[in-house]
Amino acid sequence: MNVDYRTVRAVDESWLRIREIPNYEQVAGEILFRKIFELAPAALGMYQFGSEFETGTEDALYQHPVFIGHAKAVVQMLDLAINMLGPDMDPVTVALKDLGARHTVYGVLPPHYEIVGQALLHTLEVALGDGWTDIVKKGWIGVYTFVSTAMMEGAEEHLKEKMEEERAEKCRQEEATPAQAEEAIAAAKARAAQAAKEKEVRFDTAHSLAEKNQLLVVKRSRKSLNRILLGNSVHSRSNISTENEIKKKKKKIPNSRIEDRGLVTWLDKALNISRHR
């Protein structure tokens, strides 16, 4: 997926509006899952809170602490994915593929991604109201297509690797002596530990690349930021030299100017990327 600045800004600014909603993680999460269960009622059984919820009203389900925790976690994951959008998509691709691989444990299949996509667009439309424009919708469709494709690719790769490992292990055990079988089991455990370690390294690399990604975005937008933060006067300085200076100038930006706020959000990501980890 080729993500240009306009697409990311449309998604970023619309998400900024969502974040302004009080308790937005729970609110957005509830709208999202209400729509998911409306489109696919059987999906409720895939979640821990679904099996725990046996009797009671529908509202009781959405007030269940386990549901609230899960709904917030999903929205937080979406927030992280949005934070990592930019010219270099490798960091978020790595994270999404690993996420897709983990979701195979829960029985998530390709058709489920389409349902979640419909529910997500519905959630955004409800939450944004008049802010749900054609440009914003197009941007979100593109971003979710990228997200779901990366997750499905990760799931497929994981399942193929697992099948190959199981097939190879079965062949070895059928032909092996007891001592060889024990050795094969130990080797399999070692491979699993190494794979887990490599995943941690990939995540660390992804976060490092994400930080670099956001700094590249800010650098590309430097002229716009300077015009907003420092003014257009010929006597204004042409570069933002320090983080403290940026923070001071940011306070002078009117809250009503959504375009300016969007650019400041990009700047915040570069300066405070650790807050979103």
Q: Which SSEs are present, and which pair or pack?
A:
Blueprint: H1 5-19, H2 24-39, H3 48-52, H4 58-62, H5 65-83, H6 90-103, H7 110-128, H8 134-175, H9 178-220, H10 222-230, H11 243-250, H12 258-271
Helix pairs in contact: 1-8, 1-12, 2-5, 2-7, 6-8, 6-9, 7-8, 9-12
In a few lines, what is going on in this structure?
With 277 residues, the protein is an all-alpha fold. The chain has helices at 5-19, 24-39, 48-52, 58-62, 65-83, 90-103, 110-128, 134-175, 178-220, 222-230, 243-250, 258-271.
Notes on the protein architecture:
By secondary structure, this protein is mostly helical. The protein has two domains: 5-220, Globin-like (Orthogonal Bundle), CATH 1.10.490; 221-277, no CATH class. It is built from twelve helices and no strands. It has helices spanning 5-19, 24-39, 48-52, 58-62, 65-83, 90-103, 110-128, 134-175, 178-220, 222-230, 243-250, 258-271. Helix 7 packs antiparallel against helix 8 (134-175) and helix 9 packs across helix 12 (258-271). Mean pLDDT is 72; it is low at 209-242 and 253-277. This is Flavohemoprotein. GO terms for molecular function: heme binding; metal ion binding; oxygen carrier activity. Belongs to the globin family. Keywords: Heme, Iron, Metal-binding, Oxygen transport, Transport.
Principal-axis shape equals: globular
Instruction: Provide the low-confidence segments as ranges.
Output: 209-242, 253-277
SSE sequence, one letter per element:
HHHHHHHHHHHH
- Terminal CA distance reads 23 Å
What gyration radius follows from the Cα positions, in whole Å?
23 Å
Q: Report strand %.
A: under 5%
The residue-averaged pLDDT reads 72
Q: CATH architecture of the largest domain, please?
A: Orthogonal Bundle
Biggest sheet statistics: none
Relative helix content: over 70%
Keywords: Heme, Iron, Metal-binding, Oxygen transport, Transport
Pfam families: Globin
GO molecular function: heme binding; metal ion binding; oxygen carrier activity
Family: Belongs to the globin family.
